[in-house]
Amino acid sequence: MNKTAVADASAATNEGPETSGGQPARASNIDAIVAYFESGITPAGTAGELGIELEHTLVHDDMSPVAYSGPYGVEWLLGQLEAEFPRTTRDPEGDLLGVARPGEAVTIEPAAQVELSAGPFASLEDARATFERFERTLDDVLAPHGERALTVGYHPSAKALDLELIPKRRYKFMNLYLGEKGPFGPRMMRGSASTQVSIDYWSTADCLRKLRLAFALVPLFSLVCDNAPVFEGAPRTHELVRTEIWRYCDPDRCGLVPGVMDPGFDLRRYAEYLLDTPAILIPCRKEQWCYSERTFGEIYAERTMTRAEVEHAVSMFFNDVRLKTYIEIRPADAMPVPYVVAYAALIKGLFYHVENLDALDALFEGVDGAAVEAAKDALMAAGYEAEVYGRPVAELVDEMMALARRGLAADEQDFLEPLAQLAAQRVTLADLAEGKD
């Protein structure tokens, strides 16, 4: 590892040397992180909204990768979108990295996957219209040049290390650090693409409850949203490719938040977990981003973190469910828009209906972290034939779908149908791509 940037980081963030007393500012940093989480509490009585992110993999018509640079590359695409999305983000060298307009941001992932982040949405119809409009825009721009944007969970033709990283210093350091952990970090960064849905919480207790239930649901969400039939340029060898990638990417910052399924888990324990994990990179004056293998607690041992520093620290964790000032549910593969909206409907119906939260508490009573990991193993091995939490997973999926339907208003229940129909047939999008039925 290059240690030069570590020294740069210490100077740039104005932190003092670590003292023999440990971390004098630890208590205040825990308070700062907890305050950040609590600032996301939505006033009681407010209708819950959804944030949605969908990543796209760009390919030529022959399925070969479209890179960031070069003729009709992703930088060119962002430039074409700038008229409709006039707010731009550039790196210090002037490279275009994102465009945005109110309620919608187009950004790029490490190997130039194109992501639309949109919302928050109170209406699933508004979500559908927004994402369908973006798909049409991409098609209009790309098709004349023999390119298209795919919504699949993993690159359909390339191996991860053959894909070009975008010119973003943050990703250079992440690739370095995660690459030393093993092959799955670069595969996550370069090859994978996801659908993510974010939800609100109304109190600390509501936040912790939804976190616990979301983690229990992760294996089921992974199954119904499985859309990665190809891995590293070849047909997959097991179900749920995304689950394997994230399990081995970096156990320090992926998978379950340690202790999150315990009844006594609280936000202070979440904050301690953040402080005790290597940072990988931190903001610094000299180079914008500087590399560090020290923990956040060590880096900020002598002073209290600012809100911006807390936000950055949180962004360096990639758990199946991630807490920011909202709860981000992350296990789903990228999918075509009807399935994305169905997934949003599933989450809305489950988490914004009090009786459904009670039902989920009963359904997952006694489920701990070990059970969640065992469920992932079972589903990777057997898909819809697996048993999860002591029951056939097909039965659990049926109950989940029924609860979600009950939790949706009558005029939004139809949005659930694309995923509900797949579940009823006991198939996934990945299965269909493989010719299974």
Automatic annotation (TrEMBL):
Pfam families: GCS2. It catalyses: L-cysteine + L-glutamate + ATP = gamma-L-glutamyl-L-cysteine + ADP + phosphate + H(+). Keywords: ATP-binding, Ligase, Nucleotide-binding. InterPro entries: GCL_bact_plant, GCS2, Gln_synth/guanido_kin_cat_dom. Its EC number is 6.3.2.2. The keyword Cytoplasm does not apply. Residues 11-22 have a biased composition (Polar residues). It is an enzyme of class 6 (ligase). GO terms for molecular function: ATP binding; glutamate-cysteine ligase activity. Residues 1-25 are annotated as: Disordered. GO terms for biological process: glutathione biosynthetic process. Belongs to the glutamate--cysteine ligase type 2 family. EgtA subfamily. Catalyzes the synthesis of gamma-glutamylcysteine (gamma-GC). This is Glutamate--cysteine ligase. It comes from Gordonibacter pamelaeae.
